[in-house]
Design goal:
Length: 147
């Protein structure tokens, strides 16, 4: 069974392991440790039994939030885990009356772009040569209805 919970320090070694299976430049354990104390950040992990298989998080300021990263271990992809983490982020946004959830994604990252579209994100911007390797960024936003 997949469960989602808040990131804790004890999860950090799993995060490093997950990052090794991803193409992006990972954050260092020290950077993640700092995030645990960041009052505007929320990070979640996905677990199967006791194993952490994915993580994702966002920062929020003044009723808007931005996803900073989301990654699933390569052996556990296409099982709906990233979708569950995004659902949890949306729930947290609702709890804090945050109505806009933003993100940026590499233009070549088709899998992630498909995931975000499926989760209701819409492209609302484009940044040319945004990444270190000059790759373009797609900006996307999900509007969240606050009950
Ligand atoms: C992108 C990523 C987070 C998706 O995680 P995931 O747990 O596999 O995603 P889900 O299982 O929730 O996928 C939901 C839907 O997104 C789309 N999707 C996800 N990965 C896809 C892929 N590789 N190719 C095409 N569509 C994809 C599909 O529509 C999928 O639904 P389906 O499986 O029923 O067809 C994962 O591939 C990953 O960690 N990649 C490396 C890190 C990364 O690129 N992070 C994003 C940075 S912006």
């Amino acid at each position: 069974m997949i469960t989602i919970e808040y990131l804790k320090e004890e999860h950090l070694p799993f995060i490093e392991e997950i990052d090794l299976t991803c193409p992006h430049k990972p954050w260092s354990p020290a950077e993640f440790k700092k995030e645990l104390e960041n009052p505007i950040a929320s990070y979640f992990v996905a677990k199967i039994d006791d194993k952490v298989v994915g993580y994702g998080g966002f920062w929020w300021v003044m009723f808007e939030a931005e996803i900073t990263n989301i990654a699933i271990h390569k052996d556990y992809r296409r099982m709906g885990i990233a979708s569950k983490i995004i659902d949890k982020m949306v729930e947290k946004c609702k709890d804090t009356s945050t109505s806009l959830l933003h993100l940026e994604v590499r233009e070549s990252n088709e899998g992630a772009i498909n995931l975000y579209k499926k989760m209701g994100f819409v492209q609302d911007g484009f940044r040319k040569n945004y990444y270190n390797n000059k790759e373009n960024a797609i900006l996307m936003t999900k509007e969240i209805k606050i009950d």
